[in-house]
Amino acid sequence: MAGRQGEHIIGASTPRKEGRDKVTGRARYIDDLSFPHMLYGATVRSRIPRGTIKKINFGPGIAWNEYVVVSAKDIPGKNYIALIENDQPCLADGGVNHPEEAILLLAHPDRHALAKAVAAVEIEYEPLPAVFTIEESERGDTIIWGKDNTFKSYRIEKGDVDSVWANADYIVEGEYFTGAQEQLYIETNGVIAAFDAEKGIKIWGSLQCPYYVHKAMMALLGLPEDQVRVVQTETGGAFGGKEEYPSMIAAHAALLAMKAGQPVKIVYDRAEDMAATTKRHPSRTRHRTAVSKDGKILGGEIEIVMDGGAYVTLSPVVLSRATIHAGGPYYWPNVRVRTKAVATNTPPHGAFRGFGAPQALFAIERHMDKIARTVGVSPAEIRRRNFLKQGDTTITEQEIREPIDLAKLLDRALELADYDAKKRRFAEENKRSACKKGMGIAAFLHGAGFTGSGERYLASVVGVEGRADGGVRVLVSSTEFGQGTNTVLCQIAAEALGLPYEDVTIAQPDTMVVPNSGPTVASRTAMVVGKLVASAAQGLKQTLIAAGLLRETCTAEEFRAACREHVATHGEFRSLANYESPEGIFWDDVKYRGEAYATYSWAVYVAEVTVDLTTYSATVDDFVAVQEIGRVMNPVLARGQILGGVAQGIGFALYEKVEWRDGRMANSQMTNYIMPTSADLPTIRVYFEELGNKHGAFGAKGIGELPMDGPAPAIVNAIEDAVGIPFNRVPMLPEDIFAAVEHEASLAGVR
Amino acid sequence: MKKAAAKREISFTVNGEPRTVRAYPMERLLDVLRQELGLTGTKEGCGEGECGACSVLMDGMLVDSCLVPVAQAQGAKVVTIEGVSRDARCRALQESFLECGGAQCGICTPGMILAAAHLLQKRPKPTTEEIREGLSGNLCRCTGYMQIFEAVAEAARRAAVR
What we know:
The structure holds two protein chains of two kinds.
Chain A (H helix, E strand, L loop, with lengths): L18 H6 L14 E7 L5 E8 L9 E3 L24 E2 L5 E7 L5 H7 E7 L6 H6 L10 E9 L11 E9 L11 E7 L3 E6 L4 H12 L6 E5 L12 H16 L3 E4 L2 H7 L6 E9 L5 E13 L5 H10 L10 E9 L13 H19 L3 H8 L19 H12 L1 H11 L5 E14 L5 H5 L2 E6 L5 E4 L9 H13 L6 E3 L18 H22 L9 H15 L2 E6 L8 E2 L4 E2 L4 E14 L4 E12 L6 H20 L5 E2 L2 E2 L17 E7 L16 H4 L1 H13 L5 E2 L3 H17 L1
Parallel strand pairs in A: 1-12, 8-28, 10-11, 14-15, 18-19, 24-27
Antiparallel strand pairs in A: 1-5, 2-4, 2-6, 3-5, 7-15, 8-13, 9-10, 9-12, 13-14, 16-23, 17-18, 17-20, 21-22, 23-24, 25-26
Helix pairs in contact in A: 4-5, 7-8, 8-9, 8-18, 13-14, 16-18
Chain B lengths: L7 E7 L2 E7 L5 H8 L18 E4 L2 E4 L12 E3 L1 H4 L3 H13 L8 H14 L5 H7 L11 H16 L1
Parallel strand pairs in B: 1-5
Antiparallel strand pairs in B: 1-2, 3-4, 3-5
Helix pairs in contact in B: 3-6
């Protein structure tokens, strides 16, 4: 092992690499950049959910000759946004399938001139019948996609579920719903595109996945690989919301830039960003579970349906994660899971932190409380009796090989939350107060990295480069958008080489400079990409040793000297590492069976809630988050991921509601779509367990999405504990709590 | 953006320097700072005064620069993130944001630092409740706010020690 300092980099709270630029306001985000002769672009969008376009009129009062106008006929390549099914057009051509669908693009030198011009474009439509809900889509009276409005379906069969009902002591049924949720990154979507007849197209943007945009531009513009260049600029939050959508806005800016022969910037304002871009898939989940009298799950049927919006986009992958997480962290000897994503005439739903898992886990964790009540044991006890243990198999028949002890996580969480004492106290106090207090538990797991064979298909490549000054630079397409990619990957390279953290830098993601380390999604960066960074860094060192410039045991200074010498002699000095599928990982994409993920992170969360039956508002008073994440790479960043995820989860549960009007978001403002402020959140208490993980860099597992999964069920479980009414959906705003309480009172009246 | 009148000269002090711009009177101070004066540290989050990303100090008051018509800044003293970064007390605040994890994606950070600096000026030793309340006009989607509270408390503690 080299320099002493290197040994302590993993597990230390090294400062955020780009942090100083952020706290001083020097960091440059997309809207902070400007180019000579740059135009501003805007989008003319559909005002109806579905129909054919009869005529486009350019209205009076606008000097149209000053504008660059782009329509579908200006697309040099294919009119789609390349992703999975390639069914989403870049610009509507003849018809529209959702409100806010892009029809025309305008560019002008004065950004203030655009809104009036957009409003002056009149589009005549022939409306067609549209569908807006899962139920309407399933009924199939109106077919808007394929043969039956179904984008994708999956089925898991484990054991013989049909045999369990006869011997069940209890059969527990439940139906659960989750709503759409807006990612609400504070920096809206934005890109700049510039076109050069020889060099091709260059895109700068606020985005998560440079190579997704790269692929989409090649298809759309009909350009070869080396004539598309994508650069990620500092990105002000993403949460999945900048996974697939940036390909669309980049496509629009690119088409305008090609036609104008000038750079074009498109930055959405808040209302456009909220109304037109992706959100979390709304869902409906049904459970039917056979349970023995001692509270053991004998088997069950689970059905999940997700609203995918008007085009396929990422729905099959989101649905896949929901499918695999449907059973929660429990042992199911027999289970049948059937899931599907259906089409509606709303803007496509897409990636958002958790990616299908929060929907599935909300359902199973509400359902476990229902089972507990039915059987007559406590919510903690029903979970303890059914937890997955080492050696058990998941619903996809993946054997749990790691020594996870969920009962221990649960005990720790309950103790930290002072659960039993508070339950007793609240039961007494609630009798005398209009403010009802309750406690709720959620236990869950989150698969790290891509689902099934995904990582194998991605075949990520990572580079580490030795520099002329003796330092090293990490080369990845993995992007920083607040979660700590820059910092953690530099920590890993420093640790692997025994260098001080300051000696390691990371390249700005630029497809001309960095290899494709895969998309920055799925909680895969620290674990999967990090492991490749460690391996590429080792490769650098091995080259120096093989060249006789370095001994195996060396100091940081010796490494720097050897590196300097190698660069001076041979020039560019890079080491690449390619992803290799670990042995013993088998996944059957057809039967949905096998090793769904290389590993899982595990957690138990406890929420303490007050419901004020005068105002019907629910507030979270205390929140305990206990999780096992393999290895805490950077304590400040890791805790920050959990705190931020729990805050978004609290928003998902209690504050954030999309109001739909004929497929269109009616409350596309921060004034009426409410995310938690600093005054709304409780103290969130974060605790880690570390079991390590042989598939991840220095034992890391995924962490980013995990905290999104638990808060909603824990909070709604606590609300039921407080007021004694079985709520089955999120979000639960005061009007929803009021409606449920009134409904329950009317039922009681009937009885 | 309504431009009822023609452009005219508007003079105010930005970060201690006298500046004169030609702008429409109803143009947003935010746009003038970012586009005319190149001070891009001030960010736009919502454009309607909800998120606080565009917070600046105007005559010592914390304001959302997206809601201030530039005409209203005539004769005012405006301080942006670029300006407070020169102040030693604010640098200490920035250091504590770095150490405590108060900045993640960073887009709310300039506004948040200005709100925190403004709070510490009024209340050098704020309680947690005062910090919560003092920053409640500034939205952060990444942190869940706790590490921001800790950064502000830490900066206050260090200032008291000094």
